[in-house]
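seq/struct pair 1
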Amino acid sequence: MSTDLFSASPPDPPSHAAPTARAAPRRHTQPCRAEPTNHPRPDRRPLPTPADGPDRARRTVPAGPHHPDLPHRAAPRLQLRPYQLEAIAAVEAIAKYEPAAPVVEMATGLGKTVVFCEIARRRGPRTLILVHRDELVRQTVATLETVWPGTLAGVVQAEDDEYDADVVVASVQSLRERRLRRWAPGTFRTIVVDEAHHATAPTYKRVIDWLEAPLVLGVTATPYRGDRLTIAGVFKDGVAYSYPAPKGIKDGWLCDARGYRPGTDVVLDGVSTRAGDFVDSELAAVVDTPFRNRVAVRSFLKYASDRRALAFTASVDHAYHLAEMFREHGVAAEGVDGSVPKHERRAILGRFRSGATRVLCNCAVLTEGYDDTSMGAIILARPTKSLGLWTQMVGRGLRKAPGKTDCIIIDLADTTTRHRLVGMNVLIGRKTPIADGKTLTEAIEDEERAREPWLVFCRRLRSMTEEDVAIYETAAARASGAGDRPEDSWQEMWEEISQLRDFDPEANVFNMATDPQRRAVLGFGWPPDIVNQMTKGEASMALDRLAQMHKAWIRERVPMLAAVLDEPEQAVADKLLGEDAGLWRLHPATDKQMGLLRLRGLAAIPQLTKGEASLVIDRLMG
């Protein structure tokens, strides 16, 4: 974690105090305090009684950031930024009423890990921090050591099993049933879910439901609008605080990003997934090719030749192969990996910082903890499905520096129908790609202009007075939060649902989905090869979640549809979302429906569903 995340004023121009020296991340050589989880300590509240179950009434806890029965905690070594303090205050206000479950949205590079570590420090032991990727465990522990000096942090991951520490950082994949059940419900006062958009997955829900913590805090760098709607089932208090990348850019904490996605000849469908991301060895075998490396070099020369660039690769060999390709094209480039001795690595980084080396290619060495604020380009030669990894890589280039207006992101675009890749659109919460050459700020402005087709539609559908236009614009502003159709994330949903087979050995995998179930899932755009392998239970879970997601999404669009159709909102909602409304109404509009609307010059409505199109056509025909 970078020390510039802890400064209290924007880094351009620099105004924060000199960073404090910090300890290197430890590998927990000291033993954790042994204590049975069912024996309350003086500094821990008693475990809840059986009556304090999931349906227990919310309890008011004492005001202020600290419980009076908790011991003194060392002050943090850092000065928090204004927006970090605002986020903490928002969570504390909600946490007064237990059980609480809010979400904090904070763009990458703005220090969300600092925020939840500080919340944990203020609330005191015990805290469980759930992370999605194994490598985030070490990063979180390092931040804890800075934010909460002297705390006893433990890791539950693979062979590490320090489950009785005051603060436990765990990879969710490691919490199998045997490990989880050692903690009684109520053991933890605080549970933090990093990358909270994963919290609807069975692997997370079983942990959260079992432990019944007074505060379950979700944090995410990616405010997907559709995910805001679906995670409400886990985080019932909703979004407590949001500080997106555009605001971070506007306030001077981040620089803007301009993206390019050059195409390659690589198909990723044959690469396997493990723990939420590609298997490294299989990925490297596919992407480390002369043609693809040449695409990366030519893209750099075309878009960022006047800048220094940091490239992320799929393997150590890939890093050196890519560096060699750059040198063959006349670009001073070097490779670096974890086996390079420290003194040599410092020399390599020094040459890169000075500009003697124009491109530095690395494999998993500079993903975190490396800051070179004047670096102006990032080359993503390693595709990923992990939001955490992607934001860590891109975050290396979003730091502010004098004279730096933007960072160029070159993200090699491989082909896949099976996997859902992370791209630059995640920084502003969009699920559709951002056009090449656009900055994040420009993409947001484009989104605002995208409302205009709706206004054109309204004017053609019925004559509009000035009052009508005002009603429409109000409804459009309310509905704009709905964003893109949720079904774009079928890959991630299937990966989460199919994990049930690992956690439920008694599941009957041969009890295959029925034809009506398959037709319903196919209607949401899922590929046939995935649908045909679903069991009844998996199809049922998918349909339940798809219905929940789409109904919440459509509910946000109802005000605009009501304004368009000149009908009461409740009447429109009943037609689209009532008990008698079938799942087919949530499917995308058919070609026949869209063709009829085109004939009437009314094809401008974005992302119509069958139900919405049916209402519009009924109005036209009436």
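seq/struct pair 2
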Amino acid sequence: MSPDQQRPGGLSAPVAKAPEEHMKARILAVDDNPINLDALVALLGDSYDLRVAIDGRSALRLLDRGFIPDLMLLDIMMPEMNGYQLCEQLKERPALKDIPFIFLSALDNEEDETQGLILGAADYISKPFQPAILLQRIRLHLELKNYRDKLEQLVAEKTRKLREAEQKALQQEAIYRELFNNMGNGVAVYGAIGDGTDFIIENLNRSGAMMFKTPLTDVLNKPVTVLGKGAADGDLVPLIRRVWESGQPEQLAARRLQIDDHLQWIEGYLYKIPTGQVVGIYDDVTEKKEIERKIIRAKEEWEKTFDAMADCVTILDRDLRIIRANKATHDLFGAPYSSLIGQHCFELFAAENAACTDCPALATLADVAQGSQPLTHQYRGRTFDVSCSLLTDDASSTPYLIHVARDVTEHRQLQEEVNRAHRLASIGELAAGVAHEINNPNGLILHNSQLVKDVFQDLQPVLEDCLERNADISPGGLEAEDIIDTLPQMIDDINGASRRIKFIVTELRDFSSYDNNDELCDIDLNQVVCSSAYLVKNTLKNATRNFQVALADELPLVRGVATRLEQVIINLLINASQALENPDEEIRLETDFDPSRQVVRVLVKDTGTGIPEHLRDHICEPFVTTKRQKGGAGLGLSVSTRIVKAHNGNLIFVPNQPKGTIFILELPAGEN
């Protein structure tokens, strides 16, 4: 018999132990009658872990030693401490107050049973008890306790998980809040007032507060109109209402808002979230609009200048077809504006089916130089001083011609009269002084022009720095940004004119030919792709929300000039951005390697409008563009094609499916 089975006062109640005793339910029986205890031991000892105590104090000592029963059987009438008092003691102990107990008592009146139940008894059984009923009641209350314990465990586990989920939700909310407040775009959350007649600003991130130049405390839970004059007078509130009612996202076109004392251009995108609010994402495009305004103004000024020229100026393609003609040309031939486009210059000026003899345009194309030639067109009886020059840049492979025809008929007639009067008088003087008056000054010009050019090249970095710090000066009437590009050409013009005098020729030296003297080096094309994408990140951000970059691993190096290849990729990315019709369309930039052909490739894929079929054979030619209404010059792909050819590569395109275009840049790998 173990010590914890000893009864106080020397009375013992042996309990049969099973090998799996630790699996049995624990029961504590308290009764001052040994006969009752022996009966309980006989009835319950084999099925339960039964402990007995002969009075209340013995029961408390057993509990204090660590025996916590699953159920207690209590007699009521006991010396020193009756069953009711023992219950009160148990209820005062947190670890014991929830143990179910059953009163076994000879007291069978209603008041005693009520008193027991009031004290928290799970059941009340009168003595003498029926063993089957007692066993059934014990099983029932043990099962109830088991269910209660499991339920408490489930509740505790559920509570733990809910707390963890709440903590995680709080962490996620903190992350989202940090992202929200640190976004570069302005983000506003709008809530509807009533049936959507107006909207309040429920939230605004820091970028939005800076964009609209207002403290958060001044706009939160305020009407939309506090963001700036024009938010309500325009169509912002109706647009928010449409999105709120339909659930369909909409683009907010750029508009001007009166913020404080200045105007600001804002554009954005609005959509409805599941909670019912409308979210607006805004970009400050004031600087972009200012640049667009300057570009449009420059274009208008150029067109006005072009049409204000008194000479007949036309732009020709390689086949001598007119692409553009100024007002003076239309006026000379009495033709409506733009009606001359597509005609050959020789059809217009000479009424011929072929180019004129000694045509300066053909000479310019043949020698890539500027040509000038006085031509007399018999059917009009007029003399034109015709000059041609190339319209190209460093990378253009298909130049166009600037054809300038000046009507010099009267001037030449007067000049002939003057020459006839002075010819005999001047011929001797000219012959005597030609060496001194022409050769010597010309030699000085030739020498000094080269010296000036060398000095300018040495001073160019200093001059660029000076002009950058003093952008508003205009030396010699030239704009600051034109000096670096214009002065070298002016010096070369002087040098070229001097050489023309010296050798008595009618052609200028070539100032516009593509001469790529950059040193070739090994290039990681992935780095070029990444730097190109970074340089146009704002353009891509404004064009699409779906820009993806996929770089091939261990891409072979290519030989070339990194800045030139950057120019090509930037042109392709800008073209792809301009081809998109909405921000949901996609641009994908990829690199890969074709080991069978030893070719490294860059692919620019877009899902935009694509290239019209009638332009696909000419899209890489100069001045061919799908964006002329937007101010496109049509030189980007022409420049890119020439750069790629200079790298022994190919630039091709194929239609993307179901819509859009894929441009593929192919370059030989390694030393190939």
